[in-house]
Design goal:
Layout: H1 8-16, E1 22-26, H2 33-38, E2 43-46, H3 50-58, E3 70-73, H4 80-90, E4 98-102, E5 120-123, E6 139-140, H5 141-144, H6 160-169, H7 173-176, H8 180-201, H9 209-221, H10 229-235, H11 246-258, H12 289-295, H13 300-304, H14 310-328, E7 332-337, E8 344-350, E9 356-361, H15 373-381, E10 386-393, E11 399-400, E12 406-409, E13 413-414
Helix pairs in contact: 1-14, 6-12, 6-14, 8-12, 9-12
Length: about 425
């Protein structure tokens, strides 16, 4: 058995499971939902298996299930279980009674109650760098959100070579530690399953898999950009000049979002007159940078050999740290880009109080004096909103510059 690596979500479950009668953990297939949930469950039904689906049909109200935490894994395979859980919560189910895990919503045409107010929903993403057991963070995003701008410290021996390896190695637990040759085939198989099995299971028949793969490749090439969907569509054109219909690619996008595989970052729309020209276009990200790298045929060696996607995929890796941390901190993640493109802040973590931590991502060990100018602009434009500002680097040491901006190697950043 591989040693279990504690997830950031575990801390949230530690807090909520003793309080909430039902919690649903959502996320893409293979992200580790079942492994995390099983550690807390006394009994489990795995509804992707016929024997447990038969059990759910024979005992739809769970009368045979003993007391304690009960896991319904891949609940969407038997959608009525969701409504049974909801009704049992209404009837007074005790705290910690139900855990539900799912990699998609029910297929089209299947009607279930939202569960609002009864079933808490938590999202599990692929493992961020700080969850993979290879780094020890010294800088907390949660502490940065407090806004005291304390001194920063910590050192790491992580190098650009290590970051390139982290990009292609994947945050899916069952893939991450595999030898390189096997890992490539596992990622290929993962993508093939999405096209050939998962999307049809959700009611979208993929008539031309090569067309979807071209669109996915174009989307991967747009990682960490706000490229328009029409430009992504143009980039998906085949060598014969044909391209998928716009309506088809909209279905692709919506279905991949439903399967938790697209994890785009929305534009920040703060109600500030100085930011009225900010664009609302999302910044594109796949759930795991390794999926993007594999779609583009990029190894760690190719990335390190001057490939232009190293910077965008390093930002994708940083974005994953922010997304995982945002969920733990009950915060939301945005980016900021003015319509003229004169100012751009890569990542903006906004807390419930409206204050933000702003971050720029630089593929450099040491930022230049001009790096951070957009962070300074934002701090001046919204002084009451910006709690702290940092530049994320590939360097070895965390510190705070004389202008107050923090410099943090990605390997030292955590929730």
């Amino acid at each position: 058995m591989t040693k279990y690596l504690r997830r950031t979500l575990d801390a949230t479950l530690d807090t909520l499971l003793p309080l909430a009668p039902a919690i649903a953990i959502d996320g893409p297939k293979g992200v580790g939902k079942t492994g995390t949930a099983q550690r807390r469950a006394r009994s489990s039904w795995f509804l992707d298996l016929a024997e447990f689906r038969a059990l759910a049909e024979a005992d739809p109200y769970f009368r045979s299930v003993p007391a304690g935490t009960f896991l319904l894994d891949e609940w969407q395979r038997v959608p009525q279980t969701w409504d049974v859980v909801r009704r049992q919560v209404d009837a007074g189910a005790p705290a910690g009674r139900f855990l539900l895990t799912g990699s998609a919503s029910p297929a089209r045409g299947v009607d279930t109650h939202s569960g609002a107010g009864r079933i808490l929903s938590l999202r599990m993403r692929p493992m961020a760098l700080h969850e993979r057991g290879c780094v020890q963070p010294t800088v907390s995003l949660g502490q940065l959100m407090v806004g005291e701008q304390e001194p920063l410290g910590g050192e790491t021996d992580f190098t650009l070579v290590d970051y390139a390896a982290a990009i292609v190695s994947s945050g899916f637990p069952g893939i991450m530690l595999s030898p390189e040759g096997l890992r490539k085939r596992q990622l290929d198989a993962y993508l093939l399953r999405v096209i050939d099995r998962d999307m049809p299971d959700q009611g979208l028949a993929v008539r031309r898999p090569d067309t979807l793969r071209r669109w996915l490749r174009a989307y991967a090439a747009a990682s960490s950009t706000t490229a328009s969907y029409s430009n992504i569509l143009d980039a998906a054109t085949a060598g014969d000049g044909s391209q998928p219909a716009k309506s088809t690619t909209i279905e692709y996008r919506d279905m991949l979002t439903k399967l938790w595989l697209i994890d785009s970052v929305p534009g920040w729309t703060a109600s500030l007159s100085t930011l009225k020209l900010a664009t609302q276009a999302p910044k594109h990200q796949l759930a795991d940078p390794a999926l993007a790298a594999r779609l583009l045929g990029l190894s760690a060696g190719r990335l390190l050999n001057g490939h232009p996607m190293l910077g965008p995929l390093f930002e994708s890796l940083a974005c994953l740290t922010f997304q995982v941390s945002a969920a733990a901190l009950e915060a939301k993640l945005f980016h900021l880009r003015t319509k003229a493109g004169r100012q751009e802040v890569d990542l903006i973590l906004e807390g419930e109080d409206g204050r933000v931590v702003a971050a720029e991502v630089k593929l450099a060990a040491t930022p230049t004096a001009s790096d951070g100018r957009h962070l300074r602009w934002l701090a001046q434009a919204a002084p009451d909103r910006v709690a702290d500002s940092i530049i994320i680097t590939t360097g070895t040491r965390a510190y705070r510059r004389p202008d107050g901006i923090g410099v943090v190697p990605l390997a030292l950043l955590g929730p």
